[in-house]
Amino acid sequence: MVKKLRSLEDVKMLGTDSGRIFHSASHDEILAGATTDVYFIRTLEILRAAGREDTVVTAEIFTSRPGVMCGVEEAVNLLGTLDVEVWVLPEGLEFTRKETIMRIRGRYSEFGIYETAILGMLASASGWATAARECKRLAGGRAVLCFGARHVHPAVAPVMERAAIVGGVDGCSCILGAKLAGQEPKGTVPHAVMLIVGDTLEVANIYHKIMPAGDPRIILVDTFKDEAEEALRLAAALGDSLHGIRLDTPSERGGVTPGLVREIRARLDQAGYRHVQIFASGGLDAERLPLLAEAGVDAFGVGSYISRAPAIDMTMDIKEVEGRPIAKRGRIPGVTGNERLKKIL
Length: 345
Hints:
Blueprint: H1 8-13, H2 27-32, H3 38-49, E1 56-63, E2 67-68, H4 72-79, E3 84-88, E4 94-95, E5 100-107, H5 108-111, H6 115-138, E6 143-146, H7 157-167, E7 171-172, H8 175-180, H9 191-197, H10 200-210, E8 217-220, H11 227-238, E9 242-247, H12 258-270, E10 277-281, H13 288-295, E11 299-302, H14 304-307, E12 314-321, E13 324-325, E14 342-343
Parallel strand pairs: 6-7, 6-11, 8-9, 9-10, 10-11
Antiparallel strand pairs: 1-5, 1-12, 2-4, 3-5, 3-14, 12-13
Helix pairs in contact: 4-6, 6-7, 10-11, 11-12, 12-13
């Protein structure tokens, strides 16, 4: 049983292991309330002194801008450890600005200290899911994978990549992120193996020989030679076994451009390799995605555009106290009607 922080004395006594390897919070620390803002502990102290700690309240969470609902599973798992009722907008649905996306009813002492954690779970995941859905839309229906794990702290990388899948992308490369979304991780190989082995074709031949038969053979072509030349070299060697080539040309060489994609597509087609698809990655954003899709890219790997997406600010307001409608100035007292909310606890 996790001991929850209930007082400022508990906060003072909370220590950190001197041998701690990572700064990220453990599951038990989140459940204990160690990631909350300290003013919620002060609130409990005041309510306890006033004899109002167990006051039954209804709190609602609303959003600052439109987006895609995500983070519900984690928030509900946390709330499921408490004696509360919960209504929530299902994960994956789109919400509007100021829409109420969650309602919690129970004794304030049950859930008050978790406001910080719940808002953080929903805000971050919804921001990533929203960016992922935008990528999928801009890709014009083409496959999109999330390659964003390297841009965020490893403790939250699986959260981010799972959120991207909820948002609509077709998969992700982070192993745990994919597993949490009920998928297997997807990805090709990095430049590192090319540089160590020293030849793209040699890597491709080994890859083809040792990887599972069901894995698509998609090979990087921008490490050593001209991308079109390398693509034709691979296609000639692997034939029908070559599923696709990946372009990840660095910005120092102009990056992946529509002109480059058109040239490679034309040269592959002229040589009889129409089956070879073109996969693009590397700094893709809202401006480049549709241009590259129009030029002939068949699938995309998107990293920082999703991982750096801003969280969608969310606010939790108390709207009822012991069944009596109430609200801070500027807000409407009482429960906000939203038929899209589903009661899950």
